[in-house]
Amino acid sequence: MYGRDVAEIHDDLNSSRGKDYRQEAEYLTEVIRRRRPGARTLLDVGCGAGGHLVHFTELFDEVEGLELSRDMLDKAATKLPGRPLHQGDMRDFDLGRRFDAVVCLFGSIGHTMDEDELRGTLECFARHLADGGVVVVEPWWFLEKFIDGYVGGDVVESGGRTIARISHTVRSGDVSTMNVHFLVADAETGVRHFAETYRHKLFGRDRYESAFAAAGFDAEYVEDVQGGRGIFVGVMGKERS
Q1: Using one digit for the tens of pLDDT, what is the confidence trace for 190-230?
Q2: Whether residue 102 is found in the same domain as residue 133
Q3: What's the rounded Cα separation, in Å, for the pair 96 and 127?
Q4: Do 102 and 75 have their domain in common?
Q5: Would you say residue 32 lies in a domain?
Q6: CB atoms within 10 A of CB 238
Q7: pLDDT tens digit string along 111-137?
């Protein structure tokens, strides 16, 4: 779970590390409209602190966000006043409406911890899509591509703060555990340290493809985008079970 300390720096840190939220939102919009021209409504599942959502508001007539972390959602609300933002679990939620597009980014889908949860989550997305609607999912790293023991590190300056982020990710069976440590320093408060741990399921690409098919999607995988993890793009058929 992403806590208050991470929520406060999340989007600024990622932007300073080279993540271009606007460019990604524009690219994903193009991907969606290529399959559903005129798409005007979008739900961002696992919207985090709103990094993509603030740009989707400029590209779609209606956007909403869903996020499990209250701290992340509170941060998003400061950027998106008046926009519908919902606290909920992507595995089981009901917003009472359908959208032209549902996106789930940042590898958030990897927080589903078995194949039943993965399939159930995609079925939940499907229930929130109009006939012919489009889902875009950025997976966590595939089991066959995961690098055990991977260490990542960055030091950036943003908003008068210096932020250091160091991560170490290891594999145990088909689960990855990422331990992330942060140092945040500014002239007024000095240096503070905090850490978080994230667990993700390492599904193989074939497991994702099977889950999309079981949820009723005609899906394809687009490689080498979104920082290398790629995206699954699925279209909801008109016949529903």
Answers
A1: 999 999 999 999 999 999 999 999 999 999 999 999 989 99
A2: yes
A3: 9
A4: yes
A5: yes
A6: 8
A7: 999 999 999 999 999 999 999 999 999
- Give the sign of the dihedral formed by CA 207, CA 208, CA 209, CA 213: positive
As to burial, measured by CB atoms within 10 angstroms (0-12 exposed, 13-18 middle, 19+ buried), residue 79 is middle
Quick: pLDDT tens for 149-200.
Answer: 999 999 999 889 999 999 999 999 999 999 999 999 999 999 999 999 999 9
Residue with tokens 């956007």: 63
Q: How many helices (H) and strands (E) would you count in the chain?
A: 6, 11
Q: Is 70 exceeded by the pLDDT of residue 239?
A: no
Domain encompassing residue 100:
4-142+204-236
Instruction: Give which of 236, 226, 233, 234 is closest to 106, Cα–Cα.
Output: 226
Residue 106 one-letter amino acid: F
Strand order in the sheet with 231-236: 85-87, 62-67, 41-45, 99-104, 129-137, 231-236, 217-222
How many folded domains does the chain comprise? 2
